[in-house]
Amino acid sequence: MIDGSSFDDFFADLHRDVGGRLFTITVLDPEAGLATRVYTSDAEAYPASGTKPMSQGAWTDKVIGRGETFVANTVAEFAVFFGDHALIESLGCQSALNIPVSHGDQVIGTVNVLDQEHHFTPDRVVHCQAIIAERHDELVAALRSFAPEARQVR
């Protein structure tokens, strides 16, 4: 099973197959309206941190509401949705790929890969989606381990 300590291995596999300068995993808590970055491949420059509000808008409708992958191949395409776009760009990342991970009919998190401008060709997107689909059950189990109800009783 993928857990917090083995996200590094998952990222290494994904990176080997589709590239990516920065890789993060986010867990969603729709009832509280919060998103939490639970993993980052660059803890120094882009740390996993506390929670942030889940904003409403086109990105949320697409990724969380409809469970569709978001692809932005330029900063201009994602800046309107990502408040930290300047930091992302300063890390050499000018494109973003956000793939929702669902449990049943609910999106519970996202796998996020960022890289240089125009990195996410249609073939790379499909390949990345396929890798995530192969590991879907492991990802769901790992994301659920970060869910609020899993943290309440220890």
Helix percentage range: 25-40%
Question: Beta fraction of the residues?
Answer: 25-35%
Q: Give the low-confidence spans.
A: 150-154
* CATH H-level superfamily title: GAF domain
What is the count of β-strands?
6
Structural class: alpha+beta
- Helix tally? 7
Count of spatially separate domains: 1
**CATH-scheme architecture:** 2-Layer Sandwich
- The CATH topology annotation reads as Beta-Lactamase
Q: What form results from the Cα inertia axes?
A: globular
> Any idea what the radius of gyration is?
14 Å
N-to-C order of helices and strands: HEEEHEHHEEHHH
User: What can be said about the biggest beta sheet?
Assistant: 6 strands, antiparallel
| Order of strands across the main sheet | 3-2-1-6-5-4
Overall pLDDT metric: 87
Distance between the amino and carboxyl termini: 20 Å
Can you characterise this structure?
It is a single chain. The protein is α+β, with helices and mostly antiparallel strands and 154 residues long. It has one domain (4-148): GAF domain (Beta-Lactamase, 2-Layer Sandwich). It contains seven helices and six strands. It has a six-stranded antiparallel beta sheet with strand order 3-2-1-6-5-4, sandwiched between helices. It is globular, with a radius of gyration of 14 Å.
